[in-house]
């Protein structure tokens, strides 16, 4: 839609050209959300596309994803041999409610910075133990764990004008076995629950709960938990009022889905299965 309050579009060659951040500024990457509804408080778009950051860089250290990488490009990535958790990339891309046209415009960073419970790029990067590089205005770059970035529904740790530059997924996380479960009230609807588990060679389990809660909840087990231990850990980590209540499902429904899917994932990974 037309944004009648926007009177300026800046296209800097680097973020350093944007030293200050007055009220009304907004970073523009894919723009699929910015253009989807009125942005009454925005008068200036700052376009990231001139930065020309490489979308993806795979190395022995892992996978580096530019915040401006289109979501569809990430879904089409061909992983090196040995990255057994790499099918999660495509699975999480397909978990998003969007057309193929939007998938090749919307960005990984945009989905993360929207910080919605059903943001599958958040689910993916938290489950794969990613770190985010953030660039503030007029300060030193900082790194935060993906699991600490989102603080609630549409809320995160970004300061005004701070920019998500890149996402680093370590190779060690990509080499783990993985299992994922997702449910929606409709065939192509938003996720009501998106649960991911990864397991190491020693049998340790990392379970990531998203969509069913306002922010990601992650549980780590040094050894394979029993079904009871898993249920009790979820109950301890997410209080009765900690489930996200919206049109995609009641708290009781999301709690049930999470517990059910978590047990399926536990059993699958304990049986040496993996996402395929």
Topology of helices and strands:
Layout lengths: L7 E3 L14 E4 L15 E4 L8 E4 L2 E5 L4 H5 L11 H9 L4 H4 L4 H7 L5 H8 L3 E5 L6 E4 H4 E3 L2 E2 L6 E8 H4 L2 E8 L6 E9 L5 E6 L6 E5 L5 H11 L13 H20 L6
Parallel strand pairs: 1-3, 2-3
Antiparallel strand pairs: 4-5, 5-10, 6-7, 6-10, 8-9, 11-12, 12-13, 13-14
Helix pairs in contact: 2-5, 8-9
Structure description:
- With 276 residues, this protein is α+β, with helices and mostly antiparallel strands.
- It contains nine helices and 14 strands.
- The protein has a five-stranded antiparallel sheet with strand order 4-5-10-6-7. A four-stranded antiparallel sheet has the order 11-12-13-14, with helices on both faces.
- Strand 8 and strand 9 form a beta hairpin.
Task: Write a brief structural summary.
With 276 residues, the protein is an alpha+beta fold.
Low-confidence stretches: none
- Main β sheet profile: 5 strands, antiparallel
- Give the strand tally: 14
Helix content: 25-40%
Question: What is the beta-strand fraction?
Answer: 25-35%
Rg of Cα set: 19 Å
Strand order, sheet with most strands: 4-5-10-6-7
